[in-house]
From TrEMBL:
The keyword Repeat does not apply. InterPro entries: BEACH_Domain (IPR050865), WD40/YVTN_repeat-like_dom_sf (IPR015943), WD40_repeat_dom_sf (IPR036322), WD40_rpt (IPR001680). The lineage of its organism: Eukaryota, Metazoa, Ecdysozoa, Nematoda, Chromadorea. GO terms for biological process: intracellular protein localization. The keyword Transferase does not apply. It comes from the Eukaryota. It comes from Strongylus vulgaris. GO terms for cellular component: cytosol; membrane. WD repeats lie at residues 31-59. Keywords: WD repeat. GO terms for molecular function: protein kinase binding. PANTHER family: BEIGE/BEACH-RELATED (PTHR13743), NEUROBEACHIN (PTHR13743:SF162). This is Neurobeachin beta-propeller domain-containing protein.
Amino acid sequence: MDRGEVVVLQQGFVAGDYNTPGETPSPRAILTGHEAAISALAVSAEHGLVLSGCEDGTILMHTTAGELLRRWNGKQRVSQLLMSRECVVMAIYGHHRFITLTTTANQLDEAATDEK
């Protein structure tokens, strides 16, 4: 695994630099805090951040070491999460509502499309 590369496994933990090729990944961090199934995930190895969104609309921001930094509460299923190099977060709720946020939890903008 290349330096700085992060893998989030289905079991809910982050595996990283300390695993050797062919070895079963061991947890580097366990991400906790969601009360519903995770529906979207974004990892920024460059910034050391993991974003996870779930079915109940909650978005959590963890460090790749597992520390919970932020929680945003929404009302719809999170279907996509993206993070720019400038640390602007875009969350897509369902297929029709788009929100941009800063990593300090300030909402920048919101847009919705017609549900057709």
